[in-house]
Amino acid sequence: MKKLILILSLGLLFSCTGKQKENAQSNLAVIPVSTENSIPLELSGLSKEVSYVKLATEDACLIGEINKLLYVDDYIVVCSDHNTIFFFNKNGTFSHKIYHQGKGPGEYLSISDFEIDRKDHVITLLDASKQQLLQYDWDGTFIKKSDLNCWAVGFQQLNDSMYVLYSGNQFSEENKYKLTVYNLSSCNVSAHFYPISKEKSSYLHVFTDNNFSRCGDDVLLCEMFNDTIYSVSASKYTPRYYIDFGKPKIPSSFYEAGYDDIMNFQTKLHEHDYCYGMSSLANFQTGFITSCFIHKSEYFIYYNKVTEIAVAFNQLTDKAFLGNTLVDVTKCGARFFSNGDYLLMLADNELYANELDSHSVLKKQLGEVKIDDNPIILLYKLKEK
């Protein structure tokens, strides 16, 4: 099922469930979260302008499931489960794609993650299977590869030459840390940090599409079954935000009980009514959005960095553009990505084909939408502080 991408402009959110508490021992912001006063996130109250782009649906650019989205210089760049990176112009026209799957020089077995350098438009891909970073120019011409000689499932560019790699809980004698800083210019490792727990490495192997989220020089890291968001640099990682679910959070003793594998862990987990995060993160100048599970239901948390207020939500509205449509984020498969001045949201096309308010501005502009069409993009430019 195809996804719909929303790029949202966010300002201040005044309805809340939690006010940040500052940890006296550090700069860690403790963010209490509850669903007692949960209300729909009103998109129209967060943006100053909105438009939409419908990506072309052609044989050459059928996207499939989306793993990651970037918005670069008026191009929508999509990495799909076809191990292909698609480029679309702002008007929705298909531009080109990068597809070099194979075992030969300049080819990859699969795309685990990708980034685009905003300065020179070089695309860097991570092939976890081959433990390589491969670089291509904007048009897809191969530039070079770097052998990492270490396991990684995700990465984030820090500056012109430094990249931070994320390995999850994949422990070995050669890999004892979750984060590795790699210098792509000199092709060597400059630092390791964030030790892997041997106990959790025996069972807790869960990977998400976007552990990292960058806004300017601010790089944040989230993990599934971890309620802390970390700030990451080339020399260290620092706890930055702690999502405090209170008593319903997973206790430390639960992780220490020991499990045969991830399936055994999840089976035991579903016997309880715990709250936990975080499977995604979208970081932007005025706040961030992260996903979590609260009492076995999927929620998102919007945290406003200006007001230091957080709200948990599982419904969305946009009176100005979606009319009276009340969007159930779980039913529509909502996911958020941030990129520069924009926030991107994915949702199933079924929302726009069958559930959109027939009198809404968007419905009148879109006309017929097919479930198997490529995504439609709503662009909301982010407000500044």
Task: Summarize the structure in words.
This protein is mainly beta and 385 residues long. The protein has one domain: Neuraminidase. 8% of the residues lie in helices and 42% in strands. It is built from 6 helices and 31 strands. The strands form 7 sheets. The protein has a 6-stranded mixed sheet with strand order 3-4-22-21-20-19, with no helix packed on it. A 5-stranded mixed sheet has the order 6-31-1-30-29. Strands 2-26-25-24-23 form a 5-stranded antiparallel sheet, with no helix packed on it. A hairpin with a 4-residue loop joins strand 21 and strand 22. The longest helix has 8 residues. It starts with a strand and ends in a 5-residue tail after the last strand. About 2% of the residues have low confidence.
Give the helix/strand layout.
Blueprint: E1 3-8, E2 18-19, E3 21-22, E4 29-32, E5 41-42, E6 50-54, E7 66-72, E8 75-80, E9 85-89, E10 94-98, E11 113-116, E12 123-127, E13 132-136, E14 142-147, E15 154-157, E16 162-166, E17 177-183, E18 188-195, H1 198-201, E19 212-215, E20 218-221, E21 228-232, E22 237-244, H2 252-255, H3 262-269, E23 276-284, E24 287-294, E25 297-304, E26 309-313, E27 315-317, H4 319-322, E28 327-328, E29 335-339, E30 342-348, H5 350-355, H6 361-366, E31 376-380
Parallel strand pairs: 1-31, 4-22, 5-27
Antiparallel strand pairs: 1-30, 2-26, 3-4, 6-31, 7-8, 8-9, 9-10, 11-12, 12-13, 13-14, 15-16, 16-17, 17-18, 19-20, 20-21, 21-22, 23-24, 24-25, 25-26, 27-28, 29-30
